Automatic annotation (TrEMBL):
Keyword annotations: Amino-acid biosynthesis, Aminotransferase, Branched-chain amino acid biosynthesis, Pyridoxal phosphate, Transferase
Post-translational modification N6-(pyridoxal phosphate)lysine, affected residues: 195
InterPro entries, per database record: Aminotrans_IV, Aminotransferase-like, B_amino_transII, BCAT-like_C, BCAT-like_N, BCAT_family
Organism: Pedobacter antarcticus 4BY
Name of the protein in question: branched-chain-amino-acid transaminase
Length: 354
């Protein structure tokens, strides 16, 4: 990709690659040598730079810290069989970042800043993109308000940063989840559809409490009646009932997941019926009891597909069909991985070779 931004590059003196143990890559802890940064000032994006990954000096008054104007994205890059690097559906993440920016009254980002920032970072840290099976490079764009002003109003300056982490395959035991009926993640008129910092901080106490009760995760319900399934921690939810994929429709309280969209398109192409609609807790529990619910799983960039083995509701635990017996979601997940790793034809045009 041509660099029309004239990105200024400062190379890291010494690469940390040699001393990095790729067999020990806890999520989000190991960063590549560099990062991409840009500033929004005086109404325009400027100061495009690749810098050594490290601290950025800033005023403790920046409004992101006080009032939460902060948004992020998460996507992955994969080494292809010919050694090139592909980023999966980056256009969707770009569009969603700007959707989040609009909702949080922040500056939006031009497509060339987002895309060329990613390309420049991957190019300089190409040696960090793992080529081992099922590994990837996780990309974390983040934008936050930098006005050093305590007044409550939209900031006039922002910083955009892209970080990258080499990531190991994500293995997870099937999840035991609790349907949350007290705390909520988002509400009508709120910011649930934005990937914004406050949605994750407000979820921390409820999640820690659920974990103390022995669950891995929560299923959030609607804030109005606590009757409908919304989504999980940082993943959307899908159920297979009577052979059809049933998933909560995207609405202002639910994040529009790229993996969710991808799985729906793949499922349809494989002849599976998909229903995007409100999903009542009662429907899910009845389908578990009468055996028509054969699979339940969470979908997101980190894990692709994570099976759910047990769902607890108001103190009663419901055990689902044995994850080992499930065939539909593993088949879709395999097709998705084959596309991401360039093993099978990219018939939807999802791979962007950087
Ligand atoms: C990021 C996220 C998802 C999953 O989105 P992907 O684009 O598939 O990674 C789902 N729900 C929430 C709340 C999220 O933050």
């Amino acid at each position: 990709m041509k660099d029309s931004l004239n990105i200024k590059t400062t190379k890291a003196g010494q690469s940390r690659l040699a001393e990095t143990d790729f067999r020990d890559l806890p999520f989000g802890k190991v960063f590549t040598d560099h990062m991409f940064v840009a500033d929004f000032e005086d109404g325009e994006w400027k100061n495009f730079e690749i810098l050594p990954y490290g601290p950025i000096s800033m005023s403790p008054a920046i409004s992101a810290l006080h009032y939460g104007q902060a948004i992020f994205e998460g996507m992955k890059a994969y080494t292809q069989p010919d050694g090139s690097v592909s980023v999966f559906r980056a256009d969707k993440n770009f569009a969603r970042l700007n959707k989040s920016a609009v909702r949080m009254a922040m500056a939006t980002i031009p497509e060339d800043v987002f895309m060329q920032g990613i390309a420049a970072l991957i190019n300089i840290d190409k040696a960090w993109v793992p080529s081992e099976e099922n590994y990837s490079l996780y990309l974390r764009p983040v934008m936050f308000a930098t006005d050093p002003v305590l007044g409550v109003r939209p900031s006039s300056s922002y910083k955009f940063v892209i970080l990258a982490n080499p990531s190991a395959p994500y293995y997870s035991n099937p999840l035991r989840v609790k349907i949350e009926t007290h705390y909520t993640r988002s509400d009508n008129g709120g910011v649930g559809a934005a990937k914004t910092a406050g949605n994750y901080s407000r979820a921390m106490l409820p999640t820690v409490e659920a974990q103390a009760q022995g669950f891995d995760q929560l299923i959030w319900t609607d804030a109005k009646e606590n009757k409908y399934v919304e989504e999980s921690g940082a993943a959307n939810l899908m159920f297979i009932i009577d052979g059809k994929i049933v998933t909560p429709e995207v609405r202002e309280t639910i994040l529009d997941g790229v993996t969710r969209d991808t799985i729906i398109l793949l499922a349809k192409s494989m002849g599976i019926t998909v229903e995007e609609r409100r999903v009542a807790i009662s429907e899910v529990l009845e389908a578990i009891e009468n055996g028509t619910l054969t699979e339940a799983f969470a979908v997101g960039t980190a894990a692709t597909v994570t099976q759910i083995s047990e769902i607890s509701y108001e103190g009663k635990n419901h055990v689902l069909a044995d994850p080992a017996t499930r065939t539909v979601s593993p088949a879709i997940a395999k097709k998705l991985n084959d596309i991401r790793y360039g093993v099978t034809a990219d018939e939807f045009g999802w791979n962007w070779i950087v």
